[in-house]
Amino acid sequence: MEMTRSSADGQQDIAEKHKEVRDWLEKIYCDDAIPQYEINERTLEILLELKCKNEERESEAQILIKDYQEKTEEYHAEGERLSRILQTVGLSTSNLSQSGNVSLRSLAKSALTLGIKDASVSSFYQAVTKLSTDSLDVEEERMHDQKTISQLFERTKATLIKVETLKRTLEQVEEEAKAIPPEMDKKIRQSGFLQNKAKEYSKQMHQLKVDLEKNGVNPSIYHQSLVKLAEDLGNLQKKIAPLKSKLDSYHNLPPNISLARVKIEETRRELATVEAELSKSIDLMHL
Which range, 37-46, 81-90, 257-266, has the best average confidence (pLDDT)? Predict the structure, then answer.
């Protein structure tokens, strides 16, 4: 029931809008044929909106027409008044020479162009002064706009240079990016190869250590042991050097043979001990 009532109200609203639009179109086209249009809510809303705008424009036009008519009547009355004054002093337009009529028309055109109410000298001065001021303002604005345009031109030029630089950089990056995948693939293959080799060498080292342990190889021949023996050998050689120097100093002993023999014997024993240790170290290194 409610839906039926709502539908009926909608149809009545469309009918009222259609009648309003139809009356407006008949008024616009008069005896001419009215163009066909679809009768639906959207079309009627558009036509009603056009009707409102048309009526607003028509009202504004009527106001302007009325204003122009009033001004025409005022100008006509003013013209008749000026004609009567000129006729009174014997200066009617019919009595003026051709150059006088030309000057009068030029004066009237100038007054209309400057937008002054009368042709008095003071009005012309005021209008010309205002025109000069406006001209100076326009020139100042023109110079300001010219400066702004120059600045914008310079900025645009700099921006274009940056854009070209960025384009070249982008092209270079794209070229480099094209070369990266093959290089990356090559490095990935090399990395895989090296990792496999490292695993292989690690297995071989482990196996060699196992084999050495099975064969009963003395750990003293390992690299770490040999490095330690080399260090010990260097230290012993450093100790021998001062002993040899001390022994050489005994060559100049005093005539007391007994004391000299005792000292020499002690030095020889120390030297023998050091040489024995040195020989032992060398033998271990050869093993």
Answer: 37-46
Residue 125 has pLDDT above 60, yes or no: yes
For 153-165, what is each residue's pLDDT tens digit? Answer: 888 888 889 989 9
Q: What is the pLDDT of residue 182?
A: 74
Whole-angstrom Cα Rg for the chain: 61
| Structure token pair of residue 197 | 């080799």
C-alpha 56: how far from its chain's center? 49
Q: How far apart are CA 125 and CA 102, in angstroms?
A: 21
152/158 Cα distance (integer angstroms): 10
CA 274 – CA 239 distance, rounded (Å):
8
DSSP symbols for 241-272 = HHHHHHHHHGGG--S-HHHHHHHHHHHHHHHH
Average pLDDT over residues 77-90: 69
Contact 237, 278 (CB under 8 A): yes
Contacts of 240 (CB under 8 A, 6+ apart): 271, 274, 275, 278
User: Quick one: tokens of 146?
Assistant: 């010219």
pLDDT for res 25 = 80
Q: Give the pair of three-digit tokens for residue 136.
A: 């100076």
DSSP code at position 93: G
Residues 274-282, mean pLDDT to the nearest whole number:
75
User: Which alpha helices (DSSP H) does 30-120 contain, by range?
Assistant: 41-88, 98-114
Residues sharing a CB contact under 8 Å with residue 275, sequence separation 6 or more, in sequence order? 240
More confident residue, 5 or 102: 102
Question: For residues 63 and 218, what is the distance between their CA atoms, to the nearest angstrom?
Answer: 125
pLDDT the model gives residue 90: 60
Terminal Cα distance for the chain, rounded? 119
